[in-house]
Amino acid sequence: MTKAVRAKAKFSGYKIPTRKFEVPSDVNGNPLRVSEYFGENVFDYTKSEILTKQDKKEINEVLAKKGVLTRDLAEKFANAVLNWATSKGTTHFTHWFQPLTGSTAEKHDAFLSIEDGRPIEKLSASQLIQGEPDASSFPHGGSRSTFEARGYTSWDFTSPVFLKCHENGKTLCIPTAFVSYHGDALDIKTPLLRSITQLSNAATKFVNLTNGQKREADKAEFVDVTCGCEQEYFLVDKALYFERPDLVMGGRTLFGAVTSRNQQLEDHYFGTVPERVMAYMQEVEVELYRLGIPAKTRHNEVAPGQFEIAPIFSKANVAADQNQVMMAILQSVAPKHGFMCLVHEKPFAGINGSGKHLNWSMSDSLGSNLLEPTDTPHTNYRFLAVVAMICEAVNRHGASLRTAIASHGNDHRLGANEAPPSIISIFLGDTLTAILEAYAAGETYTDDNEGFLDLGADQLARLVKDNTDRNRTSPFAFTGNKFEFRAVGSAANVGIPLTVLNGAVADVFNDMNVRIEKELGEGKDINTILTTLIKDLYNNAKKVVFNGDGYSQEWEKEAEQRGLPNLRTSADALKVISDEQANTFLTDLGIYTKSELTTRFNVRVERYVKHREIEFRTLINMVNKDILPAAINYKNFLAKSINEQKTAGVEAKTDREILAMINSTTDNLRAKTVELEQGLNGLEGAEDLNAAEKIAKVLMPVSEDIAESVAVLEENVSEELWPLPTYYDMLFIR
Ligand code: ADP
Ligand code: MG
Q1: 480 in ligand 1 pocket by Cβ < 6 Å?
Q2: What is the set of domains in the chain, with CATH numbers?
Q3: Which of 27, 213, 221, 323 is deepest in the core (most CB within 10 A)?
């Protein structure tokens, strides 16, 4: 930002015109309802004019897992997709996949083909089903050598094919899994799909064991894992963004003085959305609707410049794909409005970071949500058993759940005084806890005490919800009829936490199914079986239940006494992936193979190291090229001024004081920067766990010292000389 722009911004009202975009409308220019264009950029085979009734029936069976995809059917499907896409002006297609980078990847091919010297558009079944991108440039954590660099993408037909629209054309995106030549999953989607299958199988068995239905036709056929992701993000003016190399290189400011007014007035949360931001949100939503992503809520978040968007929940694998698309759309629409969208967990020090609340539940094919408490939760044994099993899952696999959300960005949130801590505990709310405590003590819960009287329809759901809204500090909270994994980072690919969560819960379901089946065989009554199960599980797992303030120091101490793991940094957390025993549940369930876990351990450690190195190098660079010169300039200015004033016979006390302070801060800054650079060079390019630990424990604190010195300078060096946009510029100009 030039000084002129900033001055204008501050004193004459900085107004970038809001962008008008084409609201979807009919041929007469009348606006369309959302329901009229919802999903228009997603292929819907039921609407295809090329597919016959019989074709559609067969496709339906494949999707319902009752039939297999034959070559012939795939050929027809591909043809229908091609016809649809090209009629909308699409020229290219791509296998869209999610490598271990955590984001998405695509390589485009044109439909154009030359046959007998004539141009035609073509998409064959094999092009639809299988691709072979050069895998050598994707992270593989040593899982293959360069000479076997082949990787395959394979069509996930449960996730819809969609169009990506660019300014001058469209691309057909085919969601795929990405595997190595040897069949190892090199992506995030494949293990997620496996985990969904495992949990679905285990939960279906549980439902059928417990609901007493004897007739096959009355039994549940499957259980869907459901998920809705609340996405938080920041918007920064595009001009300012490019003036901050740290934002460009790493997505977060590496330093900055907190403004006098940030979020202490708590008036941004749910406040009126600024006009330019609203114009942006509306364009984002139209794009999402076209892609069949049901964006539902939008609002300001706690920090200035921070916002949230949440869709209506869907099946977990679809939700995971859609969240990736949503982040991409948030980021691609922003520049059109003169913004850049930051999905990093901690773009600004000292104010709230961004998370991604992952709402999660299970819903059976008979239409019931396994986490629905109903009007009488205290006698809803199946519901209570499911909650108790989830408590046990977190009790058994809390460390793995923590690992699943570890990233360099999320390290700034977890445990910082504003986000769910790195200790994984469960919040159940007072009512549910009281019920489970009663069962655990072998008592029956009577609902005639302490205001839980007369639980009318949905009363409990509301009660529990109200309780949870008062507790934002829990990393994993029961919120009415679902759990909400709140410790997930805003930039995360939710596929990873979903996979581990599904696996952890499936593990407990499987154990309990064996027990229930045995006891049913012994002629025990299902309610008796479930009440003892609830009692045993809850007693065993209750140490992970915590309804208090998760941000408090007392909780950290208490958690330690309870023996709960507290894995503070990514370096601590990622170590768990290399712990074979901690991951047996995942390998036993076939969600990851051992070698896939090794791959993930290597890749994630390496990425942690790389991200930090980029940050450190950027920080050193900015200090040397921007901050130190500004400080030195100011010192010169002061020194001159002091000398001149001395000549003029004045003492210049203030100038001297400021000079001394700037001088010592600058010296400290310089010393720490040299220390960081030496430490970084001392790593000698290593990207292993040792390097990660050194970074987390030694170099991060040095970089934080640097950030502190820079903030002091920012607050004291003349604004005329300060070379970078400040938090004021970035958070309050819009
Ligand atoms: P809050 O901000 O109070 O947590 P929101 O309404 O912003 O609530 O978000 C809640 C999210 O949870 C939405 O995406 C919603 O669709 C999702 N959700 C609701 N019910 C379920 C469920 N049964 N399974 C998974 N997600 C759900
Ligand atoms: Mg929420």
Answers
A1: no
A2: 1-33+231-354 (3.30.590.10), 38-187 (3.10.20.70), 193-229+358-454+469-585 (no CATH), 608-732 (1.20.120.1560)
A3: 323
**pLDDT tens-digit profile of 480-520?**
999 999 999 999 999 999 999 999 999 999 999 999 999 99
Q: Residue 42: beta bridge partners?
A: 162
Say if CB 86 and CB 111 are below 8 A apart. Answer: yes
- Please give the Cα distance from 77 to 59 (Å, whole number): 8
What is the DSSP secondary-structure string of 210-242?
HS---SGGGS---EEEEEEEEEEEEEEEHHHHT
C-beta of 230 in contact with ligand 1 (< 6 A):
yes
Q: Is the CB of 412 under 6 A from ligand 1?
A: no
- Find tokens 């691709």 and name the residue: 131
363 Cα nearest atom in ligand 1: 23
Cα angle 174, 176, 182; round to 5: 145
Strand pairing category for 314-315 and 223-237: antiparallel
Angstrom distance (rounded) from CA 109 to CA 106: 10
Distance between Cα 128 and ligand 1 center (Å): 33
E strand or H helix at 37: helix 34-37
Distance 290 CA to ligand 2 centre (A): 25
311 CB near ligand 1 (under 6 Å) = yes
CA 570 to chain centre: 16
What letter would DSSP give residue 475?
A: S
Rounded distance from Cα 496 to ligand 1 centre (Å): 19
Counting from 1 in the atom list of ligand 1, the atom nearest the Cα of 479 is 4
What's CA 415's distance to the chain center, in Å?
17
Ramachandran assignment for 374, one of left (phi > 0), alpha (psi -120 to 50 degrees), beta (any other)? left
Ligand 1 pocket check for 709: Cβ under 6 Å: no
How many angstroms is it from 507 CA to the middle of ligand 1? 25
CA of 314 relative to ligand 1 center, distance in Å:
10
What is the distance between the alpha carbons of residues 530 and 520, in angstroms, rounded to a whole number? 11
Q: DSSP string spanning 139-186?
A: --TTSS-GGG-BEEEEE-TTS--EEEEETTEEEEEEEEEEEETTS-B-
CB of 201 closer than 6 A to ligand 1? no
- Asked if residue 733 has its Cβ within 6 Å of ligand 1, the reply is no
Please check whether residue 80 is in contact with residue 46, taking contact to mean a CB–CB distance below 8 angstroms: no
Best residue for ligand 1 mutational test, from 313, 318, 323 (most atoms within 8 Å of Cβ): 313
481 Cα: distance to centroid of ligand 1 (angstroms) = 9
Span 607-651, pLDDT tens digits: 999 999 999 999 999 999 999 999 999 999 999 999 999 999 998
Mean pLDDT, consecutive 10-residue segments, the chain of 734 residues? 50 60 90 96 95 95 86 94 96 94 87 96 92 69 56 86 92 93 90 97 97 87 97 94 96 90 59 88 96 94 90 96 96 94 95 94 96 92 97 98 96 78 93 94 74 45 49 88 96 98 98 97 96 97 94 91 94 94 97 95 96 98 98 97 94 95 98 98 94 97 97 95 92 74
Q: Which residues pair with 187 in a beta bridge?
A: 99
User: Collapsing DSSP states into helix, strand and coil, what is residue 613?
Assistant: helix
